[in-house]
Structure formats: C-alpha cells, structure tokens
What does this fold into?
Amino acid sequence: MDKTIVSPAAAVADIGDGATVMIGGFGGSGAPVELIHALVDAGPRNLTVVNNNAGNGHVGLAALIEQGQVARLICSFPRSTDPKVFTDLYFAGKIELEIVPQGTLAERIRAGGAGIPAFYTPTSYGTELAEGKPVAEFDGRHYVQERWLKADFALIKAELGDPLGNLTYRMAALNFNPLMAMAAEKTIAQVSRIVPAGSIDPEHVVTPGIFVDGVVEISEPKQEEVLNREGAVYP
It folds into this structure.
C-alpha cells in the first residue's frame, strides 16, 4: 500500500473543526512546519492541540494559534522564547490551557499509543496540577493518577520515509514524534526524502509503517528558529 501523499495541503485535508491534533517537535527541533502551515491554510477551527510548547514568533504553531484556530492547548512550556501570540490570547480568555509536566506529557502520549488508559506518577503530587485527580499510596509514597492522551491526528516530522510509512529521524527530532505517531487515529509524516520500499535498513526504522497513514516529501523543510530570526510571519 503506497502511503505517499502529493502535497502538504492534501495531507491535512481530512482535519476538520473540533479535531484533536498532536504536533511533534521540541521547540523547533522536529516540528513539522510545512504541515502546520498547510493546516493554517486549510482553516479548521476549534482545534485541541497537543504540543511541547505554545509556539514562538508568528510561524508554525504560533501561526495556527494566531489565526484563532486553536481552542485548547495541552503542553508543558507555554512560556518559551517568544510566546506573545499565545500569551495575549490566553490572557484575553480566547484559548484554554492545560499544563502537563513534560515527563508526564510524554508518558500520557506513550500510554495512549500503548493502550494503557491510566498510570500513576509522583510528579505534581501536592500541587495545583494534581487537584481533582485520584491519588494512591505505593510503598509509602503518594502517586497521582494520570490518563492517557490520544488524538484524531498526529502531524510529525521525520528524516527518511518509504511508501509503506516506515520512518527514521534526524538526531533530536526523535523527541515527541515517535510517541505521537502511535497515539493518533491518523498519523501524517513530512519527511525530507522518500526512498524506495525496502531501502531503509529494518534496524534503522524507528516508527514502523503500521503507525503511519501518510507520508509527504518536503525536501527542504523550514526551521522555526531560522524563520523567527528572519522575522517571518505566516500566512
């Protein structure tokens, strides 16, 4: 089955109003900028977005937020290099925020992909983040119950992909991308190069094609930090 998609626009065409979308990356590392911008162009509204941060400048996730398309954000770091877009909308009451400690966020996503509906962690016990959540004691220590995170769609960035959806990643771009690929009903990957099926050493495959629904080639992907240094604004 050939999972190649001809363009970023075609890749995000099925994402509609009210969808929950996981977006890979740690800051700009591994962020699928072209897929995010295609989603801006497509215009779905009332999205719930799961990401490591709240976006920077006026490109990528920040652009999606600035266009008023995100109703709720689940992230670890709402305050990063230049989060003005998100901050202004948040204090204006125009976007909801759920802060999740980063390790917990990663584990909630991993649990979603593994089919584990809940788990316990000591992180956040005794803080506001634990309010209203079940607490249990194990071996004399208190733990907070956290629920899995799943999504309708995941937009991720990889290095190599083949028509079957097998993926490799470049260095730190691993971050949240492989976890999110497993936790979504439909995963779309932008890759720097699509190679023939069978040409990726199976031992080098990080995300098997069973978790990927579409692959689109972006041969010269933009980097969020570079765009911000240039003062770019999207759209």
